[in-house]
Design a protein that fits this description.
39% strand; binds zinc ion; 25 strands; alpha+beta; Glucose Permease (Domain IIA); Nuclear Transport Factor 2, Chain: A; five-stranded antiparallel sheet; 3 domains; disordered N terminus; disordered C terminus
């Protein structure tokens, strides 16, 4: 365990430096960013394979911070998030800069509330909380198991959710931990457990049917948002799953969709990106070559061959790096490429049922007292603190 001090803003007070907040431009690469800001490109070229891959993961539109000296000319530090857990930290060291991956300091807040239905869950949640992403997360979680059109005025909904705050501001998508819809006094529950949603009996409610992008291959590296590497003594992330296989092994589209990118992408080598329904996107990297005709704009069917396993980009051997994203955020593909829904069994089921009892009680209590939600605007104000500290496992 060590304490990591994110001294970014504190420093700015002591040294009278300037902190700028900006949005990562569409189509900007990390390499271009360095060049554009007069930082040495060797910073990128000296990175190892994993860090180079992560540099391709910076999402357009993400908020990053840059701190300069008081004249605004010398860049002292830069913080660029690559997902909800990790960020690139560039720190000036004499004439050059140090590159490191550090955890994003955040606080988690949990809130429980209940509101009566007036118009629709989506509109009512926004009205009560001013939190559009929360409304979106709620509707998304229930959409395959509940027909919202059957709700009537006066029906109730209750939500327990967590929100991450970074420097006092919400970031990422709020997570629904448990929720209840009461229609005609009859409850329908939903619980998040080990990152999947279940009904109160432990049956999984969501089942996104993506197929495996390759046959008969082994997994050589799994998905992780943040991991402390004990030997390298640094943070790593792997935002996809690696499937080892021979060069030339066919790669299949994981679902129907439109190719939005087919070309070279730095450390990822030859890449195809496919956009699917519901804000999903899949990424296939290190490809040996694309199948004929696979180019931007082309519509592909689930299971159609799009290319072949290779070792292009930063890669130590032939494999497919397969990434899955929802609204630009990386998800663990192994959670959704299963063909059947998962039912909880044995010990896991018993743990789930205990958890359900607890959460149900909280939801019912919220309905009874009509617990009012924290509004997003208040959340930001009350939790704003300038020198945020974070404990980091390591
Ligand atoms: Zn990979």
């Amino acid at each position: 365990m060590r304490i990591l001090l994110l001294v970014f803003l504190t420093l700015s007070i002591l040294q009278a430096s300037i902190v700028k907040k900006a949005s990562w431009p569409q189509g900007e690469s990390f390499l271009y960013f360095l060049e554009h800001h007069g930082m040495p490109q060797s910073l990128y070229w000296n990175l190892d394979k994993e860090d180079k891959e992560l540099c391709e993961e910076i999402q357009a539109g993400v908020t990053y911070y840059m701190m300069t000296d008081d004249t605004g000319t010398t860049i002292e530090q830069v913080l660029i998030p690559i997902n909800e857990e990790l960020q690139i930290h560039l720190k000036r060291d004499g004439d050059t800069y140090r590159f490191e991956m550090i955890p994003i300091a955040y606080k988690k807040v949990t809130d429980t509330f209940a509101i009566p239905i007036e118009h629709s869950p989506y509109q009512d949640i926004i009205k009560a909380t001013n939190n559009g992403l929360l409304a979106y997360a709620f509707v998304d979680a229930f959409k395959n198991s509940f027909d919202f059109t059957r709700l009537r005025k006066g029906d109730m909904l209750a939500i327990i959710y967590t929100e991450k705050l970074r420097l006092g501001r919400p970031f990422g998508i709020p997570k629904i931990e448990a929720a209840l819809i009461e229609r005609n006094r009859r409850p329908t529950y939903l619980f998040r457990f080990n990152d999947r949603y279940y009904d109160e009996k432990g049956r999984e409610i969501e089942g996104f049917l993506f197929r495996k992008p390759v046959n008969h291959v082994r997994i050589t590296s799994r998905f992780t948002l943040r991991r402390w590497h004990p030997i390298l003594k640094r943070y790593r992330a792997h935002l996809g799953v690696d499937f080892g296989g021979r060069t030339g092994t066919p790669i299949y589209a994981a679902a129907d969709g439109r190719i939005i990118f087919a070309g070279r992408l730095g450390g990822y080598g030859n890449v195809i990106k496919i956009r699917h329904r519901e804000g999903f996107m899949t990424l296939y990297a290190h490809m040996h070559k694309f199948r004929r005709g696979m180019k931007r704009g082309k519509y592909v069917k689930k299971g159609q061959v799009i290319g072949y396993i290779g070792s292009t980009g930063m890669s130590t051997g032939p494999h497919l790096h397969f990434g899955l994203y929802k609204n630009g955020r990386p998800l663990n593909p192994l959670g959704v490429i299963k063909v059947t829904k998962k039912s909880l069994r044995g010990k896991e089921r018993r743990a789930f049922l205990d958890y359900v009892k607890l959460m149900k009680k909280r939801l019912q209590e919220a309905v009874k007292v009509r617990a009012t939600p924290i509004r997003l605007d208040d959340l930001s104000r009350s939790n704003f603190c300038i020198n945020e500290k974070e404990r980091v496992e390591g």
